[in-house]
Design brief:
The complex is a heterodimer of chains A (154) and B (72).
Chain A (H helix, E strand, L loop, with lengths): L2 H24 L5 H8 L3 H13 L4 E2 L6 E4 L2 E2 L5 E5 L2 E5 L2 H11 L3 E6 L6 E7 L2 E4 L3 E4 L14
Chain B lengths: L1 E3 L2 H10 L6 E3 L1 H12 L12 H10 L12
Classes of the chains: A alpha+beta (154), B mainly alpha (72).
Chain lengths: 154, 72
């Protein structure tokens, strides 16, 4: 591995840790300028690291502007999958990720999500690491081997 | 992955989009998947699950049908 490639791998790890810790701590997914400022690295290098992380399916970049759409389980923009945990508000891109936020934050959590068909709201609750309130069923439309073919749809 | 009130709502959603029905699992199974998937993602030594580890995870919560086959 060249020195440049090693540096990019190290930066990608640092970017990942920063993004996920910041998202868990604040409910906001930081974008390249803020990551650049926090890590003291150029925005160009940070964007290269983000592309490496996206290629490795660690996070998802928006196709239009290259910003982070989701540092799964944390969605950077509001969605119907809402999580209240540790006094903060989060969003997931799907019900799996909404539950994943409770795991990533390591806190009790209330998850609310609409029925995909009729839109009626439902509530799940995680307490002390257990799912203690549950309703509904979770539907996977895509077979497991194809989940990442179109992750937005999955 | 969407949450539905019940199987009938899943059927209606699929029919409205002319989609083949996928698979449904319980929120409890989904929680176990999510917990294993995301609990450690902010740790420096985190890495993606290997194919074999993911297969073992799916199997451990009873997801063993062809739908959950990761090898295509």
């Amino acid at each position: 591995m060249t020195e440049r490639a090693h540096d990019l791998d190290t930066l990608a790890r640092d970017v990942r840790v920063h993004v996920f810790r910041e998202a868990a701590a604040t409910g906001h997914v930081p974008q390249a300028p803020a990551i650049s400022h926090a890590l003291g690295r150029s925005e160009t290098d940070v964007r290269a690291a983000l592309h490496e992380l996206a290629a490795a399916k660690v996070l998802i970049l928006a196709p239009n502007d290259g910003n982070i759409w989701a540092a799964n389980p944390f969605c950077a923009v509001p969605s119907g999958f809402r999580v209240a945990a540790a006094g903060k508000r989060y969003w997931g891109i799907c019900i799996w990720d909404a539950l994943g936020i409770a795991a990533a934050v390591g806190s009790d959590a209330i998850i609310t999500a609409p029925c995909g068909d009729c839109g009626v709201g439902m509530t799940l609750e995680v307490r002390d690491g257990q799912l203690v309130r549950t309703e509904g069923v979770v539907h996977f439309a895509v077979r497991a081997h194809a989940w990442w073919d179109n992750i937005g749809f999955t | 992955m969407l949450l539905f009130r019940d199987e009938e709502h899943v059927d209606r959603w699929c029919a409205a989009r002319d989609l083949a029905r996928g698979a449904t699992i319980t929120p409890e199974q989904t929680w176990r998947l999510a917990d294993a998937w995301y609990r450690n993602k902010a740790k420096p030594d985190w890495r993606r699950h290997t194919l074999e580890e993911t297969e073992a995870l799916l199997s451990s919560i009873g997801l063993t049908s062809a739908f959950w086959n990761l090898r295509g």
